[in-house]
Amino acid sequence: MRLCSNRKETFTRVDGKTWDIQTNSIGERILSEETNPKDLWLVGDSMAMGYGLPTNETPASYLKSKYKLEVRVIAVDAIGTNGILNLLKEAFTSTNSKDQPKQIYWIWNPSDFIDDEREKKGIKKYLYPIHYHLIRNSYIYQNLLPSQKANVYTSSGIPILYPKNHITYSNLYKFLNDPTLPIEKLNILFSWGMSKVGKPDTKDPNYEEAKKFFTDQGIKPIDLRTKTEILFQEQKQVYIPGDGHPGPALAELFADAIAKDFLNLP
User: Fold this and answer.
1) What is the span of the domain harbouring residue 21?
2) How far is CA 227 from CA 8, 188, 193, 238, in A?
3) Is residue 233 exposed (0-12), middle (13-18) or buried (19+ Cβ within 10 Å)?
4) Proportion of the chain in helix, strand, coil states, percent, rounded to 5
5) Exposed e or buried b for every residue in 180-204, given b needs 16+ CB within 10 A?
6) CATH number at residue 216
7) Total domain count for the chain?
């Protein structure tokens, strides 16, 4: 899936607030038509894209307003590991050598364990985007569908550790060992997602297991879980109410961590 190109749209969130999104000619979210980011790339799914956040509350916006850093956002919501890999490879293929990034940051989340299972092959690859559009925009279509399982490993909603043979780990290994990508430029960030009760999902064991996986692959993740808990305790808007995607406080935390690493700040 890709974002539509050359669009300026406004949407309404579940909490009643609106958010806007603008894309360029290749379907990447931008801050404005004047932006021309080169050195810094942000890749991933909805968390990197800033799903549900108005333009001025996205990680990209905080990077520019606080640190004067322009970032190219190569991200699409509800996309899995292989989809992110393909986005990144396409970006490198279509980008001149003089405009290649100095560093790449991937905001990773265990939602990939679900998204990777939904990535389809064959005819389903083309039907799924239609299904995805309808389930988001058609009330009738939503009510025609059977109830969906939370995930294949738990029916209770309580986080259960995904097995080592899960497709996400296979996809991650493929991603991190792709010879066409400068993996030495890749940096992984992650934080707590939101639990069903609206708090940081500190009971999910997959974060720690994934951290071990990345470390074994030679990448030391930028772990923002403790800082996220502090922000939540301070009653900052860490998550979008009733939605679970990062709110402005978490988006700003991502931007601060990226800037600190990229600029070698203390």
Assistant:
1) 8-262
2) 33, 16, 13, 11
3) exposed
4) 40, 15, 45
5) ebeeeebbbbbbbbbbeeeebbeeb
6) 3.40.50.1110
7) 1
**pLDDT digits (tens), the chain, 266 positions:** 789 999 999 999 999 999 999 999 999 999 998 877 899 999 999 999 999 999 999 999 999 999 999 999 999 998 899 999 999 999 999 999 999 999 999 999 888 888 887 765 555 555 555 655 565 566 676 666 655 444 333 444 667 899 999 999 999 999 999 999 999 999 999 999 998 889 999 999 999 999 999 999 999 999 999 999 999 999 999 999 989 999 999 999 999 999 999 999 87
Q: Which residue has the tokens 């922000």?
A: 231
Q: Does 61 reside within a domain? A: yes
Residue 93 lies in a domain: yes
Q: Would 153 be classed as within a structural domain?
A: yes
Q: Is residue 3 part of a domain?
A: no
For 72, left (φ over 0), alpha (ψ -120 to 50), or beta? beta
